[in-house]
Amino acid sequence: MPGFHERFGIYSSPRVHDDLVEWGYIISQKTVARIMKELGFKATPKEKFVVTTDSNHDLYIYPNLLDRQFSVEEPNQVWVSDITYIWTLEGWAYLSSVMDLYSRKILGWSLASHMKKLLITIIRAL
Q1: Tell me, what DSSP letter sits at residue 52?
Q2: Which of 16, 39, 67, 98 is most buried (CB neighbours < 10 A)?
Q3: Beta carbons of 95 and 106 less than 8 angstroms apart
């Protein structure tokens, strides 16, 4: 059904109907709803925001050595690292990177479908 698949299955019958009317079709919203039901098309709502970080724990927290002092005088004096969560059609992907704070150059990275310690131990050097 036009409109439904173009929107990756998240449109329900009113929005599919609006698209069809915009494209020049003459059809009622009720008919669109009936056809979608007959074809088994059901709108899948977008997933709600998922909290991925829990800072309220009793685990050891490493000290903040930089204390927001991001000005560095020479290359290779301070390297910083971070993990970024990326939503894909196949689920969450986790990107770990290491950056030279002086040049802002990415020195290495690792991408995985998990956040196990292997993610940060296998960094691909650039």
Answers
A1: -
A2: 16
A3: no
